[in-house]
Amino acid sequence: MQHTVLRFAAFLGVLSSIVRVAAAQSNTSELTARYGPPEVERYQVTPKVSLTVVYGRDHAVCQLSIEPRSSTSAIKPAPTGEPLTISSDLADSLLNELLPLGLRQGEARVMAEQMGCPALLSEDYDNVRIARTTNACAPAAKNVESLAIQWKRPECTEQKTAR
After folding, report:
1. pLDDT tens digits, residue range 57-98?
2. For the ranges 19-28, 35-44, 138-147, which has the lowest average pLDDT?
3. What angle do CA 18, 41, 102 make, to 5 degrees?
4. Is 142 found in the same domain as 77?
5. What is d(CA 153, CA 57) in angstroms, rounded to the nearest whole number?
6. C-alpha closest to that of 83 among 72, 65, 68, 66
7. Do 95 and 152 lie in a common domain?
8. Running DSSP on this structure, what letter comes out for residue 87?
9. What is the rounded CA–CA span in Å between residue 29 and residue 110?
10. Contact 119, 112 (CB under 8 A)
11. Where are the alpha helices (DSSP H) in the chain?
């Protein structure tokens, strides 16, 4: 009986240690103090749209990605197999809010590629690149699959994409 009590006490001790470690690591300020500032953050713009921010070595924004969220997860594809899309009006609005025309340096060099339904539109400025993937088979008002803004600063060249 005493052996069982000792085992139970040891189990409670280990369990409380695990809970303390989990609680400490779930605190953002403690994680930042231990590992430095986050390199990536994700925001819920609307219940159906997320914004992912990737930071450079200088902790300034290097990439912004706007993507639709599924009802179950921001990462999993739609359960029906249909592509997730957001409205082109919302994508344009967010682009202009996050990167107003006045901050885009130089003339846009535009490239468009389309193979069947998927299409890529890229606007290349002196300081930033904007890439929009669309689904031409979806209704025109709601056909944006993703929108990415990538800064061309030296601190950003080694960064991986948010995906």
Report:
1. 888 899 999 999 875 554 555 555 566 888 889 999 999 999
2. 19-28
3. 165
4. yes
5. 10
6. 68
7. yes
8. -
9. 42
10. yes
11. 2-25, 28-35, 88-98
